[in-house]
Structure formats: structure tokens, C-alpha cells
Amino acid sequence: MMATPTFALLVPCKNGARFLPRLFASVRAQTRPFDEIWVFDDGSDDDSSKVAAALGARVLRAEKSLGPSAARNRLTAACVCDWIHFHDADDTMDPHYLERVATRVKPGIDVVVCDMLWIEEETGKEENRWTYDGAALARHPTAYLLVNTIGGINGLYRRSALVAVGGFDETLRFWEDMEINQRLGQRGTGTEVINENLVTAYRHRCGYSNSNLGEVWRVKLQIMDRLLAKADAALLATIATEAETIADRFAVMNLWSDVPTALTLARQAGGNPPTTNNTALRLLKYFLPDAWTFRLQYRLRKSRAR
Hints:
Elements: E1 7-13, H1 20-28, E2 36-42, H2 48-54, E3 58-62, H3 68-78, E4 83-86, E5 92-93, H4 97-102, E6 111-120, E7 126-130, H5 134-139, H6 141-147, E8 155-158, H7 159-164, H8 176-186, E9 191-203, H9 213-227, H10 233-252, H11 259-268, H12 279-284, H13 290-305
Parallel strand pairs: 1-2, 1-4, 2-3, 6-9
Antiparallel strand pairs: 4-8, 5-9, 6-7, 6-8
């Protein structure tokens, strides 16, 4: 007879004291309770540790910030449950979250992912929904997850699978969730998809990622560059497209010095940037550096949008 699986809620937290009560209200509302609840206080300047302890969590604390990857690795090492769900301090979950994802736990499955709703914190306005195509994910997990990221709060993981791939990459301050899900996919990890919005992420305009967008996209380029050596045709095509998309993001932010790096990666992956239907630009690509043609394309597009 198989033992009943156990589930841990693990919360990496930095200066999240004011948000923790909201998260824990959604935790207390769970129709199936978690077996363990841990909070890692990542060198907070506020009372995150005290608030978390008062709310009933077991608390680990670092005197100085170690980053999100290290926080998750420390939490994984501390808990003993079979399954792990990470949740950020400033986000929430549906009351039926654990009840619903627990029904998909079975042999051969190491990850259960649900859809995610994004809300603008200040206005309460819905900004976005992340949803997943289970068939496309199964066909090519690495390529699919490069574009359709499993976030830090909408995955349930078999603890032994996370340990087997070495945990989160502690050199990464961004995209650590995408990177570990890709490694799990490369390992042949089985993933179940639940197309229900069971978690809610709150977008903060002054959040860490929003205030470091240039670095966010530089890190993603670095991760994609790592994938090149062992990439098959499908992954190479995805890298080429995504790298050119990132070049466009750099242009929007006026980070033109970063554009050549993105375009070079696109070309290394087999692309021919910039992608364009403009006949003149297509001809110029044979005579001008990629970055020059890209800049012309961007200016033409911008002038037409006025």
C-alpha cells in the first residue's frame, strides 16, 4: 500500500512582513492543509521573521541576502515532505490549490503546474494570465519552457526530483525558476498541467525585477547561450526567435549597447536577424551589420506607430 504523500509550503521572503498576513490568510483557507510550512527570511530589514513565526511558520534566517535560488535551496534542504510548493510572500493561492494539484500526484510525474493570474497590486486590475499547453510541453519541454515559463509560485515539485538535478542555480538572480524547470525537462521529468487559475501573482511597479529589466534580459540571454551546444533544431529555432525578441526589448529600453549581444545569439542559433518583410531591409542585411539593420527596422516601426 502506497504511503499518503506529504506536501510542504516553502516561502522565500525578503522584506515581506506587510504581505505575509495576506499570503497566510490564503494558506489557512486551504481545503487541504500543507503538512509543513517554512519561511526563509533572506536578510530582511523588516520584521519578516517575527511575522512569519507569529503566523505559524517555521523560520530560517540569513543575516545577509543570499538571493532567491539559495533561499529555495535552503528551504528544500530543511523540509522533509515528498512534495514542495514554493510561494512568494507577496502572492496568494486559491483555497482549493493544494486539493486540486494533489489529485495529479502519481508515479512518473515530478511536476504539477497550474495556470496563474497576474494582478496589478495598486489597482487590482488583471494584467495577464499564464496558461499552458500540456501537449506542446510534452513534445519539447526545453523549447516550450523557454517561452512559457513556469513561475516561482505555480509549480508543485517532487522533492527528490529537485535534489536529483542539483537544486536551483545560485548564480542566478533572475529566471532561476525557468532554468530549473528546463533542467527537469531535460531529465525527462513528467509534468501534469492543470488549466485552472489556482495562484495569483501581484505585480509591483517598483518590484526588484521591474527596476532591473536590463539585467533580467541579459540573464535570460546567458541561460540561452548555455543551451546552444546541445540544442536540437526545435530549441535552436526557439532561441533564435527569443533572442531577437530580447533585442527588441533592449531597444525599447534604449539599451542599444546590449542589442548586438542578443542579435549575435540569434544568429548563432541559426537565425538571420532582423526578421523583416521589408524588401529594402532584407537586402541591406547582406551589406550592413545586424545591429545597424535592426536599428533601421526599429526606427521605421516606431515612426509608423506615431
